[in-house]
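Lay summary. Proteins are chains of building blocks that fold into shapes, and those shapes determine what they do. In this project we predict the shape from the chain. Here is one chain we studied, written as its sequence of building blocks.
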Amino acid sequence: MLYREDDERPAMDLQLKGRRALVTGSSSGIGEAIARMLSEEGAAVVVHGRNRERAEKVAAQIGAAGVAVGALSDDAGAAAVHAEAVTALGGNVEILVNNAGGSATGNTSKPPIDIGADDWIANYHGNTLPAVRLCRLAVPAMVAAKFGRVINVSSAVALQPNNMGSDYSGAKAALNNYTVSLAGSLKGVGVTVNTLTPGVIMVDGLIRFGRTRYGDEAMSIEEITTRLAGEGVFELPPAGRLGTPQELAIMACTLASPIMGFVTGSNYRVDGGQVRAVL
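And here is the predicted shape, written in a compact code that computers can read:
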């Protein structure tokens, strides 16, 4: 149905009720926010992390279907996580959010010449290959069911790398390329694959970092942002503030929706304008 500008528009229904979702790295931060919002939209969600106690705590808070615990840095670990998720969901994964990742080596202040091949390998295992492994496990069932949504969480540095941490930004760039290739290979089967790219997000870890750095456990988010930006730890984007995990979750839930079937192979930047490119 088409609506005129003066018509009253109904609330959007993302049609996620009853859909089965696995969100990796969802025991905290962006992943937790995505898992929470998917659950609020009616999806059955499995919370994943490497610490069972923490994952179960989040699962209880959001009313999740269950948890899947384990590392995704090798094939056996990914297979175990996938199997635990399928059991908890009572069926195959329909929505796969590959959020687990982060710098595997802490080389965020190292120039490329000082970063060894082992560091690159570690970051590929931590940021690119978990998605590859889980897609190989989950996507065939999506194809058979003629419905599936894969959302790979990348990073702004994959598109606009800085002079440090090239092993991490390179691994995320590879994830972006994998997204496009996988989407292109799944023609007409009802499965979409997209990338979600956050900029600098005000997660709990960044808040703790700021409060520890300045020795003030009561420091507000606004003051932390101002001081860290003033010292050049990061640059505020054109939006004039940092993003929130909830803003990433809104986009993730939208991409997960059955109503987004014509959107695939795309990269959605939720970065406040951080990446200065026409993409």
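What the prediction tells us: Strands lie at 20-23, 44-49, 66-69, 95-98, 148-153, 191-198, 267-270.
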